[in-house]
TrEMBL record:
SUPFAM superfamilies: P-loop containing nucleoside triphosphate hydrolases (SSF52540). Residues 24-324 form the ATPase AAA-type core domain. Gene3D superfamilies: P-loop containing nucleotide triphosphate hydrolases. InterPro entries: ATPase_AAA_core, Bact_Antivir_Def_Nuclease, P-loop_NTPase. This is AAA15 family ATPase/GTPase. GO terms for molecular function: ATP binding; ATP hydrolysis activity.
Length: 390
């Protein structure tokens, strides 16, 4: 669990401190206010905090971690120093504070090839590995990213490591045994089944090295080896949950709606254990609303809330009013929901970015998102009153 992010002199951030909720965090801001950069900073630092590769010395660890960090951000000038704030006198410094008090910090300047890593730990455990879902869908792109006939340098010139890392997670083993996973973990059963119900099926990795969409649904059946004595056991112990496909029907993932593919990504991550509430690291999702039917946004928010209730820390970035409002409407204090909103704003004179964090939705009235939709509503009222004499 991550409790705080500190940034000094990274890209447009001069000095920023972000205290995160252990449950659900919503990053809000107009385009160009750095929402994605914050998600990438958390992701990159989370990877730095993982155990080093066996046999690596300190210098080798810093070199490989620095290259990875640059691959996550992919500045136009592909070098670490390009991430240093222009005109800043002091070095760039990023720190991630975990819930157990352990920290990981990196520092570099505009001429640095590799950054320096500093870690302090109050426990022997390392931070759990984060998962990053970029704004664009990935399912239909995995085939191209992993195709051995394509030059790796070309693939990396098109996709940053947020995309290629997710592609590897999506094809990781374990998914085909999803029936047992759904049955063994009742916390995830309702979430996984609802994700399938939303899109009417699931995305499956094929032997041809691509994802295909299988229409179908989950259903519960009595365990085939259940005896009469076992009938008295609790419900989960006497049933199995299996996916039932519509025989003879499947489609290329590219032939399905992009919004459905984004939901399919979360379904697969839950089924193969890449996202496991209470066990895996923070889930970072950039613009989950992108290309998503507004009718589905309510369901996506409900699912994210359910994951957070079961121990999954979530950070999403958005500039969509509908998604934002659903977080407010669906928050349930009876379920101990906790949502922290982080509002990013750019100073028009200096260009620096600041953040205001609040646990109260009512304090978001002055955000650019709210103002834009307020102006839209005012324009609609004005038009409806044209020609009406009062």
């Amino acid at each position: 669990m991550i409790s705080e992010l500190r940034i000094e002199n990274l890209t447009a951030f001069e000095n920023l401190q972000l205290k995160l909720s252990p449950k659900l965090n919503v990053m809000i801001g107009s385009n160009g206010t750095g929402k994605t950069h914050i998600l990438k900073a958390i992701y990159g630092l989370g990877l730095v905090g993982q155990p080093s590769i066996a046999g690596q010395n300190k210098s080798e660890e810093e070199a490989s971690a620095s290259k990875k960090f640059v691959r996550i951000f992919t500045p136009e000038d592909v070098r670490l120093g390009a991430l240093h704030s222009k005109g800043a006198d002091s070095e760039t410094r990023l720190s991630l504070v975990n819930g157990d008090g352990s920290t990981v910090e990196i520092s570099f300047n505009n001429r640095s090839k590799y950054f320096k890593i500093s870690e302090t730990a109050t426990t022997s455990s390392h931070a759990t590995k984060p998962v990053f879902i970029p704004a664009k869908e990935v399912l239909s792109l995995v085939r191209g990213m992993r195709n051995s006939n394509y030059d790796r340098e070309t693939v990396e010139a098109i996709f940053d490591d947020g995309y290629t890392d997710l592609a590897e997670l999506l094809v990781s083993p374990g998914f085909e045994d999803e029936a047992s996973r759904v049955s063994e973990d009742p916390r995830l059963s309702s979430v996984i089944r609802e994700l399938v119900d939303l899109v009417g099926g699931r995305y499956r990795w094929t032997e041809e090295g691509a994802f295909r969409f299988e229409p179908g649904h989950y259903e519960e059946k009595a365990a085939p080896d259940r005896t009469r004595s076992q009938a008295a056991k609790v419900y989960q112990d006497s049933t199995v949950i299996r996916f039932v496909s519509k025989e003879g029907q499947s489609f290329s993932s590219a032939m399905t709606a992009e919004g459905y593919r984004k939901i399919g990504v979360l379904h697969r991550l839950l089924c193969n254990g890449a996202v496991s509430p209470g066990k895996t690291g923070v889930l970072l999702w950039d613009e989950p609303e992108a290309n998503l039917n507004p009718k589905l946004m309510k369901k996506v928010v409900q699912i994210l809330l359910e994951l957070s209730r079961n121990g999954q820390q979530v950070v999403v970035a958005t500039h969509d009013y509908v998604l934002l409002k659903w977080f407010d409407l669906l928050k349930n204090t009876g379920h101990e929901d906790h949502i922290r909103f982080h509002v990013l704003a750019r100073d028009e004179e200096t260009g620096s970015i600041s953040v205001h964090s609040t646990d109260e939705y009512d304090q978001l009235a002055e955000t650019g998102i709210a103002k834009t939709f307020g102006a839209l509503y005012d324009a609609e009222i004005e038009r409806s009153l044209e020609g009406v004499s009062l």
